[in-house]
Amino acid sequence: MDNFEKVTTGLGEECGVFGAYDMDGGDVAPTVYYGLFALQHRGQESCGIAVTDTCGERKMRSKKGLGLVNEVFDEEALHALHGNLGVGHVRYSTAGGSRAENAMPLVINYVKGVLAIAHNGNLTNAVELRHELEHTGAIFQTTIDSEVIAYHIARERLQAPNVEGAVKNAMKKIRGAYALVVISPRKMIGARDPFGLKPLCIGKRDNTYILASESCALAAVDAEFVRDVEPGEIVSITKDGISSDKSMAIDPARHARCIFEYIYFARMDSTLDGVNVYHARITAGRALAQSYPVEADLVVGVPDSGLVAARGYSEQSGIPVGMAFHKNSYVGRTFIKPKQSERESSVRIKLNVIPEVVRGKRIVMVDDSIVRGTTCANIIRMLKKAGATEVHVRISSPPFLYPCYFGTDVPSNEQLIAHSHTTEQIREMIGADSLGYMEIEKLKDMVGELGYCDACFTGNYPMEVPGRDVSLAFE
């Protein structure tokens, strides 16, 4: 592998978690598999499933590996995962790098038994917690902060009366963004950080209860949406049903859901905290058309998250919307290419322009973000080479100015093109005829009354982050 490098275009995904508990005793591995399939957009680096049988021996079976869900699991592997309680995970590395041992779920054997944990998010105090644990003899097998959470849950369980109590005590120590699904031999527990940065919802199919990052994963396994796990809530699912602990909840005025779930991460058929993602993106596109009108012949969206915003722009402006790109669905977001190749080739592998659609036309191109600018510049070049006379770029997020500490792979300031260049300079660098970013004050129209985090645009972090003096989350 020495002659190759990993190339990531644009933003990194978050991770996806999925848990299922069949009260009737049926095997849940196939359900978890299809749930993860529906969450594949949240991470294509590694995946895993762990299961246990609540009616039999207290044994945890698991399989995980690098690659897509259908690459890691086949029918034989799923058949071997016998158990009616299970948790699965798809991963994109935001902290820890891509190594096989960093794949989740993490299975922990400890004095009280066994736990499996899947985590979406990033801790802001993981480094100090890790050092603290190491100085008391902890030995880490991975480089991910999820293991820090697992250790704390295991340690707290020694004093706590039950696993949910241990999760609650661990939550008092960890800071940052997290949606957790934890399974013990008899329970499935879901927990969400008090700010609600990461999504988590509850579903039900017959006598099977489900926890999932997004509602689209519930639909994929024919389950009904029950409700969202609330920010700061811990739900415990046992053979007796669901119980809830909201003692870690904070004032809803301080809630800070990741706005990028609505702009980019979530699938367009998901609903998060009562806000439909499709509707949020239509609203974003409409806002762009109001803020940056232009005379043009066709509006096109860059797949996938730009497509719905493009439709919103079209509805507001009256300019027809069209499909200008063919996307190769069989290429993951991160893939291998020779070092000496141009970055442009990696864009062409994923995306091709349909010349018949754009030839001789003035194009409005809608995309979700500009990170480094290289991908956007290459797409504009492709459009113009295919015969587009003008390309007006509209971005359904404000400019990235600050790094994210909560699990979104927004790189350091130096790599953010908007950090050191004006909008006009960026327009010139990417070769667009005009450029308009979403106005920060219009973000709230996408999510209504929900509190959200826009720190990557404003620098207003909802809690203390490394190197920044912000009021502590838990005082």
UniProtKB/TrEMBL annotation:
Occurrences of domain Glutamine amidotransferase type-2 (ranges): 15-240
> Which UniProt keywords are present, listed alphabetically?
4Fe-4S, Glutamine amidotransferase, Glycosyltransferase, Iron, Iron-sulfur, Magnesium, Metal-binding, Purine biosynthesis, Transferase
Record keyword 4Fe-4S present: yes
- The record places the active site at C15
Q: Where does [4Fe-4S] cluster bind?
A: C258, C404, C453, C456
From which domain of life does this come? Bacteria
Would I find Iron among this entry's keywords?
A: yes
Pfam families this protein is in? GATase_7 (PF13537), Pribosyltran (PF00156)
- Catalytic function, reaction form: 5-phospho-beta-D-ribosylamine + L-glutamate + diphosphate = 5-phospho-alpha-D-ribose 1-diphosphate + L-glutamine + H2O
The record's PROSITE patterns line, in alphabetical order, gives: GATASE_TYPE_2
This enzyme's EC code(s): 2.4.2.14
> Pathway of this protein?
Purine metabolism; IMP biosynthesis via de novo pathway; N(1)-(5-phospho-D-ribosyl)glycinamide from 5-phospho-alpha-D-ribose 1-diphosphate: step 1/2
Gene Ontology MF: a single term: amidophosphoribosyltransferase activity
The cofactors it requires, by name, are: [4Fe-4S] cluster; Mg(2+)
For this protein, what does the record note about how its cofactor is bound? Binds 1 [4Fe-4S] cluster per subunit. Binds 1 Mg(2+) ion per subunit.
Annotated Mg(2+) binding lies at: S305, D367, D368
Family from the record: In the C-terminal section; belongs to the purine/pyrimidine phosphoribosyltransferase family.
Purpose of the protein:
Catalyzes the formation of phosphoribosylamine from phosphoribosylpyrophosphate (PRPP) and glutamine.
Task: Tell me what this protein is called.
Answer: Amidophosphoribosyltransferase
Taxon lineage: Bacteria, Bacillati, Bacillota, Clostridia, Lachnospirales
